[in-house]
Specification:
This protein is of the alpha+beta class. The chain contains 16 helices and nine strands. It is elongated, with a radius of gyration of 35 Å. About 11% of the residues have low confidence.
Length: 432
């Protein structure tokens, strides 16, 4: 199902008339998978086939391909409904961490207040029975940080400023502060193969290894690198063939990527594969500061509460909220500790990952710079590759067969075309 979605999106971006090579290059899929996927999709939506006189095939898909798939497949309808439900569930999971933080802080403050009032009342009773004078009562004060609860007050005259489309609310920011916002390079492998295919197509279907290495990972060492073993996965993925130049250099030709249905398509591959650096959080600095303040208040409050819960007889006497908080105390303390400890560990981990990403980007950029400082051997290989470049554009003027019209009509049209060509040749001979 995921492959069907990938191929459908590639077909739409390519303008609905494609070859298997076009789809493989656009989606970065292996040619075998692209061929199977295109055939399955063409059968599902009843796409038309256009067969050129050379035997190459172009597929013409309907413009309403998504609507056709939707009407035919109950699985797509179920998947769409599940995706909507999952987005809601995922949002609830994200905001739950902020809700738990606020509830934890509220429980701690309420329990501290109740215990403090009870303790001060007991102290007054002792003083009254002893005939002593009254004393001052000092209640613990907990700073809650910025006022984030005014939004629940219907009498508030304050208004929130308009949020930008990409800005998250505070509860979402808490999740982002704790766990980040995902891996920005989750699609790195897809981008890698899409870029490799674009380089191959942009160079007419024949390339040298130096044009591909800026998009690969580890090239190996020693003989593995010298013999260009790193090109084997590229050849396997796109059905490539190694060709040897007269001077012994190796050039890689990809015949199926040399066939396209896009005559005027411009391909501009990037100079090298760039990994995106990780961000600690997409939340604003104010939201991060608010989360730190609330987390600190939660942890400090839990520590204060722990000292107050030492008198278990008072806890048993008060019961209610105090008894509930007493039973949940280690959970509250653990959450408060993890709330500040986890982002701290993650911060240093992000810095370490970014240094590695920068090193890999610098290495791939260095490989790309090789193309501007070519040796004589590399120039010879590139010159030989130019002799192998060949792009076959499947137009509509040299079709041997198409499913868009009746076979009899096509045979008549083909006969008329042949007769017209013979007539032209006869007229030319007579003129001579």
């Amino acid at each position: 199902m995921a492959q069907t979605k990938t191929i459908t999106q590639a077909v739409e971006r390519l303008g609905y008339r494609v070859t298997v090579g076009d789809v493989a290059a656009e989606a970065g899929l292996p040619l075998l998978e692209a061929q199977q996927g295109v055939l399955a999709l063409a059968s599902e939506v009843q796409a038309h086939l256009q067969v050129a006189e050379s035997g190459e095939i172009a597929y013409v898909f309907p413009k309403n391909i998504q609507a056709v798939l939707w009407s035919k497949s109950w699985r797509l309808r179920w998947q769409s409904a599940w995706e909507k439900a999952w987005r809601v569930l995922l949002y609830l999971i994200r905001v739950s961490f902020g809700v738990v933080l606020i509830l934890s802080l509220v429980l701690i403050v309420v329990a501290i207040t109740i215990i403090a009032i009870a303790a001060s009342s007991a102290g007054r009773d002792d003083n009254d029975s002893g005939g002593g004078g009254g004393g001052m009562i000092f209640l613990p004060r907990v700073w809650l940080g910025p006022d984030i609860f005014w939004m629940f007050d219907p009498r508030s005259d304050r208004r929130r400023r308009p949020r930008t489309k990409s800005e998250m609310n505070f509860l979402e920011a808490v999740f982002s502060f704790l766990f980040g916002d995902g891996n920005p390079n989750a699609d790195l492998d897809d981008r890698r193969w899409q870029s490799v295919a674009q380089v191959i197509q942009a160079n007419g279907g024949a390339v040298v290894a130096e044009q591909i290495t800026p998009f690969l990972g580890d090239l190996g060492k020693g003989w593995a690198s010298d013999l260009e073993d790193f090109m084997v996965p590229v050849l396997s993925r796109f059905n490539g063939l190694p060709q040897v130049s007269p001077q012994g250099g190796i050039v890689y030709q990809f015949p199926e990527l040399q066939v396209t249905a896009q005559a005027q398509r411009t391909i501009n591959p990037p100079p090298f594969l760039r990994e995106l650096p990780r961000k600690f959080s997409q939340a604003t600095s104010g939201q991060i500061m608010g989360a730190i303040v609330l987390g600190s208040a939660n942890l400090i409050g839990a520590l204060v509460l722990g000292s107050m819960l030492q008198d278990q007889s008072l806890v048993a006497e008060l019961g209610g909220v105090v008894a509930l908080v007493n039973s949940l105390y280690w959970l509250l303390l653990g959450y408060g500790t993890a709330f500040l400890g986890l982002p701290l560990v993650r911060y240093f981990w992000v810095q370490q990952q970014n240094s590695r990403i920068a090193a890999r980007n610098a290495e791939r950029e260095r490989r790309a710079e090789v193309l501007s400082q070519l040796t004589d051997d590399q120039r010879e290989k590139l010159a030989f590759a130019q002799t192998l470049t060949l792009q076959t554009v499947l137009g509509t003027d040299n079709l041997a067969y198409t499913t868009e019209s009746d076979l009899t009509d096509q045979e008549i049209a083909q006969k008329d075309k042949i007769d017209a060509e013979w007539q032209r040749l006869l007229e030319e001979r007579q003129g001579k």
